[in-house]
Records
---
Amino acid sequence: MTTFDDMTATCKVIQVVDAATKTSIRYVQAKPVFPTSARDFLVVTSEKRLNDGTIAIASRSITHESTPEDKHFVRAHTHVSGYIIRPLGEDECEVTLIVHMDLGGMLPAVVINILAVDSPVKLLKRFRELYNTRKSSRSIRPAVSPSPPSLSPVSRSAGEPSLPFMSGSKEYIQHGAEGVRILLDKASATCTDTTWNEVKSSEGITVYRGVVEGSDWNAVMAKGVINCPAGFLAEILQDIAEMTTFDEMTASCRVVELVDLPTKTSVRYAQAKPVFPTLARDFVVITSEKRLEDGTIAIASRSIEHPTVPEAKGFVRAHTHISGYLVKPLADTQCEVTLIVHMDLGGMLPAVVINILAVDSPLKLLKRFRTLYENRVYKSISSSSSGHDEEEPIDYHAAVKPHQRLGPQVLKDVHVAPKSDYDHKTKDSHCYLCDSVPIFIHRHNCRICGHIVCGNCSTHRIHTNSWKTMRTCDKCVLELQQNENQAKAATSPTSEQKSDITVQAVTKRTPKTQSMLAWGVISSGALLSSAVWTNESIIITLAFFVLLPILIGYFLQWEEVSP
C-alpha cells in the first residue's frame, strides 16, 4: 500500500478475522498535507469473488479497543472505500475505485470535494506505472479455486499465478517446521555441526561466528536485550511491510503464498540491495513461527523452490540454509533477541571475504531494533499475541515540569549521542515517543538519545556553558528532571536532621565609607570583568561582564556587623 499510494505513511493489520474472505482489521496513517494535521483510519477490509471473475475489495470504518484515537491525528471516517476488479483477459483488467469518506477536522467539505478529483486519477495511473510491465506470472489470479492442501508444491505448474492465497500445503508446513527445528538446534549448547566463537561485543550485544561442518560459509549469531514486548517485536519481524524499515539492506519483500495461519507459514520473495561492485541478491524462503512453553517465539526461514518465482535476471539467487530469530520475553516490555543466519550468497565473491565482513551486519540490525522499537507506544500488540493487557503509554509531554529550567549541570553524567548515531531522517520516519509521522519542518533529533521526535514531543531545551541550547525529547527531559530532583532531595536535610539544626544570628553588611564603596565598585568590577572576559557580543559583554561585576563589587564592600 505504501508503494502504490503515495499518501499512505503506514499500514498494519491489527487483527486477522477470516482467511476465507480475507477479512482483517487494519490501521492506516496518512501523510500530513501542510497546514492540516495527518489523518488516520481504522477499517475492516474484506474480499469477495463474483461468478464472472470480478473481485470486490471493500473497506469501511470500525472501532477497535486496541487502537483508540491518537491525539496527533484526526480520525477520519470511511463510509466505504474499495476496488472492483473485472478481468478482461489474461493480462488485462478493468479497475473501478470508489471512495466515500469524511476526513473531519476544520477544513470545509466543499474544499475537499474540489481537490479530491485528482487523487483517484493519479492512483490508477500509478497502477499502470508499477504493474503494467510485470510478467504474466505476477498478474492477478484468475477466479479459480485454490489448490487442495494435499497438492505437492513441486507438482504445481509454472503458469499458475503468484498472488498470496491460503494453500494449506502439508509439504510446505513440514518444511517450515523443519526450519524451526534447525534454528533451535543452532542456538542450543548441544549443537554438533556448528562451533561458535565470540568475535565482537558492543552495548550489550554479543556477536558469534560459527564454523559449520562441511560448509565454506560461516554462520553468524547475535544476542542482545531489546526494551519492548516480545509479542510486539515478533509481529514486527513477521510484517513484510516493516522489513524494509528495520533491515536497511532489504529492497523489497512480498508474500508469494500463504500456507498455514496457525503457524504463520508463508513463502516469501525478498530482494536485497546491491553492494558495489557485486550484483544484488534475491531469496525465496519459507518462513514459519513456533511459540515455546517458556514464551520464546521462534521465527525461522530457509530457502525453497517455488514455480512462480524463477531466478530473475540481474540477481544472484542466494541460498539460505537457516535464518531466523528467537525472541524470549524477560519482562512485560523487555525481551532477549537471538539472531542466527547461515546462508550461501553465491556469485564470484569468495566465502572467506564474506565471513570476515558478515560480523557487523547483525550487530547493526539489533541496534536498529533498539532505535526503532524501544519505548514505543505498543498499540499493534493484540491480546492474542501477548497474552497480557496493554500497558497505558506514558505521556512524557504532560509529565514534564514546564517551569523547571535545566542548566549544564544536568549533563555531568549524561552521554550525549553523536550525530552518527542519529536516526535517519527518512520521509516515513516515526516520532520516537508518539509514533506519529512528523511533517518535515517539525522533525528533529533529540541531542541526548539521537531519536527522531516531532515538535510536540521536543518542546524543552537544555542550556549549556557556551550559551547554546540543546533540543531534547520530553522523555530525556523528564528523566533529567527526575534525576536532578532526586539529587536535590538527597542533599537536603530530612525531617530527622532538621531537629538538630540550631538557629544562628543573621549578619548584615553595611559600607565602611563612601570612598571605599566607590573604590570597591570600580576595582572589583574591573578586576572581575577582566578575569572572565571572552569574545562575546556587545550586549552580552555589557550585561554580564560590566554591569554584573559592578553590582558584585558593590556588595563585596559591605562590612559584616552583628545585630
---
Amino acid sequence: MDIELRKATKADIKDIKTILSFYYLDTEKVEKNLPEFIVAVFDKKTVGCACLDTGDIVELRSIAVLPAYRNKGIGSKLVDAILSRAAGLTDVVYLRTTSPAFFEKKRFVRLPDEEKKLIWKECEQCDKYDICRQTLMKRVSVLPNTLTSEQKIIFSHRLHKSTVKYNYDIIPSKNIEGIIK
C-alpha cells in the first residue's frame, strides 16, 4: 500500500474532522492547529491524520485512521513522522490514548492517572475525569551518543511551575530489560 504523508492544508480540514469524528476525538481546534497536522493519503483520499502540539508540553494528538484503512501500517507511519518532527524539539513526547498497546509498540510507557491533572490542566476541570478511559503515556528519546555499553539513561519528568524538569537515573544495562525496548 503506497501511502503519502504530507503537511495538512486548508483543503484537508473537512477530511480531518471526519476522521477524528469516527473516534469521538476533539474537532474544535483543527483549524487553529492545522499547521501542526500531517495527513496520510492513499489513492488521492485522506485516510489518516496526526498532530504534534508544541504548547506547554510536546504532545502527539489527534492521531486517527479511517476504519477501513486500519491495521495497514498507516498509524505507525503517522506516529513515526510525528516523532521525527518532535526529535528536534524535545526528548519527551506525551499523549493520551484509548489504545495504549499500540503506543507501547512505539516505546511509549504508561504514566499514573493522577499525573493527567499535572500535565493537562484541562483534565482537572473535566466533568468526565472520574470515568475517563484515556491512558496517559510518554516516550523518551535517548540520543545514541548519550549511551554507553554499561549504562542506560532513564528520564523521568517532574512538573514544577509548568516547567518540565528531568531526573536522570543511571541503571546498569543488565537491569534495563523491559524498561527500554
---
Amino acid sequence: MITKMQQYLNSTRCRRQMLLSHFEGHEVTHVGGTDICCDNCRKRLKRAKNVLKAGSSQNSLDDKKDFTEEAKLLFAVIEYTNGSFGLSVPILILRGSSSQRMSERMKNCPQYGMGKHKSDNWWKAFGRLLMCEKYLVEKKTGSGNFFSVVDMSDKSKRWFAETKQIPNKAEPFILEMNAELLALEETKAPAILKQSTSPPVRKVLSAAFKDARGELSEGSVEKLDEETSSLDDKAADPQEEILKGELYKKLMALRNKMADQDGLAPYMVFSNKNLLDMVVYRPSSLKSLSQIEGITAARISKFGQAMIDVITSFCKENALKEDVFPPKEGTRKLSPTTEAGLRALTPTVQETYRLYAIEKRSLPAAAKIRGMTEETLITHLAQAIKVGLPVDLDGLSVTQDIIDVITKVILSPPINSDVSRLSPIKQLCPPYIEFKHIKIVIALLQSKFGVDEIPVPSKESSVNEKSPSEAKQGVNNSPEDKEKVPFPKRKDSASIPNGFESSNVKRMKT
C-alpha cells in the first residue's frame, strides 16, 4: 500500500482516473483531461498549449517513455557490483566519478562513465521510479539490518537477461515518468545557467589553449553540406498554425473515442506525440502514416484508416497540403557519436539542433518554427558545439576571418583566455564582430581545449588577487592559492598539435 501511495503522489496521470480505477477494479478512462479535473490534467493541458504554440513535432506530451538504454546501463552496474550497495555507488560508477569511494574494480566496470550524459539527480529519480515499479528491491543487511542495499528483482533480471540474449528483439523498457523525472526532463534552462547560486568563478581556457597558441587553421574548420530544402526559408503561415490546432483537436477526439470503444488507455491507440506528428506531416495513406516514427504496424492496421480519413477530409476542406515529410537527408540515421552528444543536451536544445543541423533548416526558419529568437537558438547551438556535435558555421555567418580575430583577442592581454564575460571581448573586436560570433568561437575553443574554473576571490582578498595565468602557472602561489584551482592541467595538453581539428565542425558521418 505504501508503494501504491508513492506511485499516486509521484504519478503524472490523471489522479481521478487513478482513484476510480483502484476502487472500481478496472481501468477508467472516461474522466479527466480538463482544467478543473486535477493538477496533473492542468499541467498536461498547459504543455499541450505550449507545444502547439511552438509548432513543434519533437516535444512529446506522452508521459510514457522508453528507458531501455538507461535501464540496461543501471542494471549492468548493479549486476557488476552484485547488488552490494545502495543507489549512490552505481550512480557514481555510471557518471565516471573520481570519488575516493571508487575502487579500481569499480573504475574497471565496462559501464564506468557511460551515464554522464544524465545528471546525478536524474539517475536518483530514475532509481526511485524503478523501485516503485518493483524492478529494483531494497534489502536490509548488516548487523541488526541497519544498512540497506539495492538489488535487481526477478522481474528486472528476466528482462535484462532477454536483452543480452536477443539484443535487437527484446521488449522496450517503457515506463510512465513520475513527477520528479518529468520535471527534470522538461527543464528549459540550460545547465550552465543553473549555477547562479554557486560561488562566482572565472572561466579560463585550459593551458592547452596557450600551448597550441589558440590557432584554428582554415583547413580544420570543415562545414556540413549545404543541402537546405526549399521549405527551409518558408515563413510560417499564421492561418495554417490555427488549422493545425483544429486538426489536432479532431484527431485527439477520434483517438479518445476509439480508445473508449476498445476499453484501452488513449496512449495505447496513439500517443500525443503521434497525433502531433500527424498534424505536422498530414499523411494521406497508411503507407505515409507508417513513415511517422513510433507507430507500430498493428496500430496502423487497426486504427490508422480512421485517422487518415479525418486528415484527408480536413486537408481537402481547408486547402492544406498533405504528406509534408522532411527530405530524406534530414531524417538519416545518426551516428552513435552524434546520438551520445544529443543525450548530453536538454530537450529544448536537442530540438533546436535537430531543426538546424539534422533537418537543415535555416536559422530564421528554425526560429519561426520554435517561436524563439535567433539569439536564443545561437546559444543552443553553442551548447551543442561544446559537447562535440557538428554544426554548420556558414549558416551562422562565422567565417575563418572571424574565428581568427576573436581567437587572437581571447589569447592576448587583457583577456588572457578568460571567457567568463562576453562584453570585454566584444569591446576589443572590430565593429563587424557580433556577440553571436563570440559565443560560437568560445564554444569551439572550449570543445577543443576545455575550460578551468577559478573561484573569484572575496573583496577582502582582492588586493592579493592574481591573474588567471598566474594562478594556472603557479607563480608565487601560496598553498591557499593552489587549493582555489579545482581543476588540474589537462594531461593531454602537451600532445595537442597546433591547429583546430575538433570533430564539432567536421562533416557529420552517418
